[in-house]
Write a structure and sequence with these properties.
The chain is an all-alpha fold. Helix content is about 80%, strand content about 0%. It folds into two domains: about 1-30, no CATH class; about 45-78. Helix 2 packs antiparallel against helix 3 (about 45-75).
Length: about 80
Amino acid sequence: MQSYTQNPEVTINKRSLAWLRAHAHYDDLHPYEAMELIKRLCDQDPVMQKKAFLAAQEGLAYYELALDECYKIQQANR
């Protein structure tokens, strides 16, 4: 969060900063907790493993799109 508050190009109000503080820990743990659940649910089921893999690929594709759009906005604001 320090990188946000110390960056002169980023404006964060108190409410947004409070939200970041409240969710930062959860957001760090969530991928690991989700992966543990998937591993347990798909352990012996190849069909479920394939579905989980395809869902992960789709999620990463959306993540890539979001990052690309953020980059475009950042470049346009320079």
